[in-house]
Structure formats: C-alpha cells, structure tokens
Sequence to fold (365 residues):
Amino acid sequence: MTAPPRPSRLGRGLPPFYCPLPRDLVHPDAKEVEARAVEWLDAFGLYPDPVERAWGLATHSADFSCRIIPEGDVEAVLLFTEWNYWANAVDDWQDSGSDEVGTAAVVEHGARLLRTIEDPGAGLLPQGPMTRALLDLVGRTHALLTPYELRRFVEGTRDWLLGAAWRAARAEEGSMPGLNDFVAMGPLANGTRFSLTWSDVARRDRLPADVLCSPALTALTDAAGFVVSADNDLFSYDKDDHLEPREVNLVNVLARQEGCSPAEAVPLAVALRDRVMVLFLRLRDRLAHGADRELRRHLAALGHYVAGSIAWQTRAPRYASPRNRYELPVADASFTVRFAEGPGCTGTGPPDLPALAGWWRHLRH
Fold:
C-alpha cells in the first residue's frame, strides 16, 4: 500500500486568493498550441527519458501561455509556449539542489544564454538537445519580433536569469534574505517582462517606448510581477520544501523574520500580497483613464497575467503533485482554490518596505 504524501508545512489547503479579475479566459486555440508544442519538444528530444518527459509536460506550460495570452496570433502564442517549456527545463536544473548547480554555474549559463539570444551564431553553449532547441527558438524569435520587441524580450530574460542567480547565491551562502531585499530581487526570477513581451507581440500591439517605460507603467508591471511571484511561492511551496537550506521564497523569508513557522507566515504573505494587489487595481484604473486602445489592451493583458497565472497553477501537476512526493505526476492533480471577496490586509497604503513603497506615489500623479 502506497503511503500518503507527507503533509505541507503550510497547513491544510491554500489560503483564499483575492483576485477580482476575469479568471477563466483561455486562448481559443489552446489545444492546437499544446499539441504542436509537444510535437516540437519530442522532435528535439528535449527530455532524455519518459520520466523526465512526464515531469516536463506536468508544467502545463501550454495552459499557462494560453491563459495569460487569451487572444492573439496563434504562431506567437505557440513560440511563447515552447519558450516556456524550455525555460521550465532550465528552471528545474537550477532548482535541482545538485552540487554542480552552484551560483557560478547559474551565472555562467545565464550569461551564455543571453548572448546566444542576442547573437545565435556565437557558439557559446554545448551541443545537445537543449542547445539545438534553443537555437531554433532564437532563430524564429529573431524572425518574428521587431528589434525593439527583441530588446524587450532580452531584458525580460535578463530579469529572470538575474533573479535566479541571486536566489542561487543566497542558497549557496545558506542565508535567508531580509524581507526588503527579497521583495526587491526575488520576483525577478518570475520573468514578468519575459512573458509580457509575448502578450503584446501576439496582439500586434506596439506601445511607444516612452509609454511602455514610463515610471507609472513600470511600477504597475512590477506590482503585477510581485503578485504573481507571491502566488507562485504559495502554489510551489511543497515542490521545494525538501531543500536544505530552505528555499528562498516569500513564506520562508517572513517565517525567518518573524521567528514563526511557515504556516504561521502564510497570513503575513497574503496580507502583503493583497496590499500590492489593491495598489495594482487602483493604479491600473488610473492609467486606463484617457488611455488609447493599445494602452487599454496592455493594461488588460496585465490582468490576464495575474489571473491567468492563478488558473494555470491551480491545475498544474508540477505543483499539485510535486516530484518530491510522487514518482510521476498525477494527471488530474489540482488544488482546491477559494477566492476572497476582499483583500486580507487591514491597510491599503504603502508598506514599510522601501522596495515597494515607491509604487504608491504613482497614484497621486
């Protein structure tokens, strides 16, 4: 008889999520995108054996892609989906806990990956299925994106890799960062701009650089990234709870700061997450006032990113039947998710965290 999986340190069930945004949108061609993406993965032999393939597909990267981009050009969504499967394979290597995956290895690989995206002929990565698949992705990305869109994608990739390197350094050092350091740097590994570039590409929206890079829209984008990162730290907590030292995530950072258990830290994480969610909604509404069609579509896409990420993680076996508890992913594994009627925080003003507090000033402009 198989023993039941060990319980979560977070307690029984996830907390309610405050997300007053459309949550059930998905691209109409999602099944086609998934089928073609899996065909691409198999053609390049990205996974070395059936077990690794099962865990790779358990990321449900196609579902993620088609929920945060519920409309637009199917070829762009397909390419984004394939990027996500590839990036999740890299993420699993970075999070493996192997002795060979230290800070130096993560930084070295990240620098070579970035230069390969910018110059695919540079020959900086070793031969193998991962590199062959990457070069295919890079070639098609160069052909599809405008120079400015490509620059946005590179910057988004840099965010992801910089955040991953910072987390690897903390793990190697065996230190849990302070809360302000974490909220400033931890969410970089989420790759928010990596994803949002493709949302605009799929819709063929091209916001002017001075609009896209304006301080207020930058703050809104960072707020969305923080909310998605906080949610992921809850959904993915069990996946990495076997690691020692403990995974650098919002729950563990708060538990260390407050001297409490991870379960006791969850309400604190939710309160901070919800405070930023309220800021996101208010600032998005302010920016939508008088906005043109393309900016309004971009603001809507930020909402799809936040809500779609919750919907995807709810159904992803990568999180609902994690590898440190199951030999193979459970195909229909899912979380029971509840949605809160209001935020789980007593105040909606800026928190006493310099890395976040500056976002609130954009509400007054």
